[in-house]
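Why do we care about 3D structure at all? Because function follows from shape, and shape follows, mostly, from sequence. That is the central idea of this module. The next example makes it concrete: a single protein chain, its amino acid sequence, and then its structure expressed as tokens.
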Amino acid sequence: MIEIGAFAGSSADAYISATPTVEYTGIDLFGLFYCQESGKEFDPYETAKVLFTERGFSKVTLLKQDLRRLDRLPHEADFVVVDAAHDFENEYADLKLALTANPKFIFVDDADDPTQALPAIEKFLVEDLAGKVAYTVSLDYIGGGLVIKLKD
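And the structure:
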């Protein structure tokens, strides 16, 4: 499994907990953030590392990487999660990048934004996946999700 946009690992915690034998690669810039509530800097990379260690997840790789500098994902994966920047250009670029892992499934998180994410997803489905989709399933939750099953 590869997650594009791993941030601090909370989504990965759910994915890995559901499939404990999975080999997980999370890719993100992992830049520092300022927490207004605490007044302190927040390091998502260190937070994810601590989370995964405490949860006993041993098959985890975190890559600090600018996604726009990648031509390909680092390895093939059956399941790719697209959950990084959600503006049109980055969403579309991340979807195309997901294909380089030769996945069976692509899961798009926060897919319901009608001004940015949805147009990027529609373009991807029409232009890049024409005739290659077995089915799609929309998931109804805050932000929405979309499962894309690619044909074998």
